[in-house]
UniProtKB/TrEMBL annotation, chains A, B:
Stretches assigned to the DUF2520 domain: 122-245
Protein name as catalogued: Rossmann-like and DUF2520 domain-containing protein
InterPro entries for the chain: 6-PGluconate_DH-like_C_sf (IPR008927), DUF2520 (IPR018931), NAD(P)-bd_dom_sf (IPR036291), P5C_Rdtase_cat_N (IPR028939), TM1727-like_C_sf (IPR037108)
Origin: domain of life: Bacteria
Occurrences of domain Pyrroline-5-carboxylate reductase catalytic N-terminal (ranges): 4-86
Amino acid sequence: MISVVILGAGNVAHHLYKAFFSSENVTVTQWYNRNIQSMRPFNNEVQLTDNLSQLIEADIYIIAVSDDAISELSQQLPFEDRLVVHTSGSVSPYDIDMKNRRGILYPLQTFSREANIDFSEVPLCIETLMRKDYDQLKELGQSISNNVKRVNSDQRASLHLAAVFVNNFTNQLFRIAHEITESQGAEFDLLKPLILETANKVQDLSPFKAQTGPAKRNDKKTIKRHLKMLDNEDHKDIYKLMTASIQKTHAPAFSIKKLKKIKKD
Amino acid sequence: MISVVILGAGNVAHHLYKAFFSSENVTVTQWYNRNIQSMRPFNNEVQLTDNLSQLIEADIYIIAVSDDAISELSQQLPFEDRLVVHTSGSVSPYDIDMKNRRGILYPLQTFSREANIDFSEVPLCIETLMRKDYDQLKELGQSISNNVKRVNSDQRASLHLAAVFVNNFTNQLFRIAHEITESQGAEFDLLKPLILETANKVQDLSPFKAQTGPAKRNDKKTIKRHLKMLDNEDHKDIYKLMTASIQKTHAPAFSIKKLKKIKKD
Ligand SMILES: NC(=O)c1ccc[n+]([C@@H]2O[C@H](COP(=O)([O-])OP(=O)(O)OC[C@H]3O[C@@H](n4cnc5c(N)ncnc54)[C@H](OP(=O)(O)O)[C@@H]3O)[C@@H](O)[C@H]2O)c1
Ligand SMILES: NC(=O)c1ccc[n+]([C@@H]2O[C@H](COP(=O)([O-])OP(=O)(O)OC[C@H]3O[C@@H](n4cnc5c(N)ncnc54)[C@H](OP(=O)(O)O)[C@@H]3O)[C@@H](O)[C@H]2O)c1
């Protein structure tokens, strides 16, 4: 049985708490937040506190607070030489105060309070500064996820950056599609099955193999018509840049000059 | 019972054929392609032909050939005043030769030969030039899909353009994420659950509400670090443009000057 204390009560902390609570191998000994309010519903299940000096002993302390607050909170911990990990994709393990043993438990998924997530499918990227801590953090990860991976800090940073592309930027493309369809009185809803299939396709096929469409075919007539339809200059720029990017990926033999021309047109 | 003749034997034609074959309300009377080869496996189920002069009578003729070939093929049809529709998102119904009654049956999904698609969930955008043809085309659509919508040509064009954003451009963001992770020896596979969740999220939530991340939070430190990590200039440009786009969507009050600066940096 591994005992943990969770620090923070935001999106990640709530999802982690629920996953640990359902696991037979983990017990959440205590749950800390600077403000106890949002943890109240769990009052009967776990000891709650908003006082760092009252933190009790546990095998692993998980700091799941905003990136900017990790370092300071770690300095305020009233103990030494215990295993303390944070859950951020972009913060260094060295940002945790060095009086404790340090590590990372980064869940590679987007969490919000409302959305239910099957934690067993969430990739958990783990790292510890000391070799001897690794096995226990791995065991903790495996008690809630089937997908635990050792990932060093450079790899974690690249995954976090890549996540911005596949999540934030992709979602903004959906937003632009929403604006384009609404401007013609068409329903964005009609695009939803296509959005799902686009994500499904790359579960088995590489994005390279999954690509189709006018940019890949270099269908100049359609590209020109699309650019004419777009009256928002930012959407036009994105259309040109993404088209050029697809063409570079799929036709490295294309003259670079030609591509630069498309980009600037 | 509605009888149809399918013309063309590519991705869309094959998926349509299978959907009609499974429907109780439709019979595929004949299947034409200029080259009979790829239809051979269906020889026992349906009459095949590669000869336009042998086309037999049917209620609806569906032209599912490449966009550029629709007009010419429609001119070669050896009959008049029958209902002829094509399946393209971007070709006008007026491209079909005017000797016949004309319409559109545009399936808003991405089809490839290997991938199985549940046709009942595919949005079918329909349009007919003559009012009296509408009901029959709608009945045909409803025999294979639960999601049949009347969509005029401007709306269809905007849906087709929006589909390029949510399918082709999104898939290219996945490709870039693949390159970013591989360059650090990290696994693209770890991003797959996030890719699925990103698509799932907008099934119930608007893309506006679903947005998160450094661009929306205007987390300058992270944005700067990400730009420093990207050594591919095209990926950097895409990062800047998508970040500026998100910020424009979520903070219309942002000074435009500031945004232009981010874009150009
Ligand atoms: N959300 C995701 O999708 C996601 C995914 C993977 C990793 N992460 C990482 O997980 C961590 C938590 O993210 P989140 O989304 O759960 O954040 P969140 O929902 O915004 O919650 C932030 C938490 O941090 C606390 N906090 C903020 N500033 C603090 C300070 N100065 N001192 C003490 N506590 C402070 C907040 O306390 P109050 O409740 O009192 O405001 C709250 O409990 C971050 O490192 C993030 O990078 C997030
Ligand atoms: N694929 C999609 O995801 C999708 C989605 C919605 C709508 N559409 C639309 O559906 C239509 C068909 O697309 P597809 O993806 O099925 O195409 P495809 O797989 O490339 O197949 C093209 C078909 O057109 C025939 N063809 C090409 N040029 C021809 C010509 N000059 N004369 C006669 N036949 C010719 C081909 O014959 P051969 O077999 O002899 O080469 C083949 O049967 C297009 O209008 C497309 O815009 C496609």
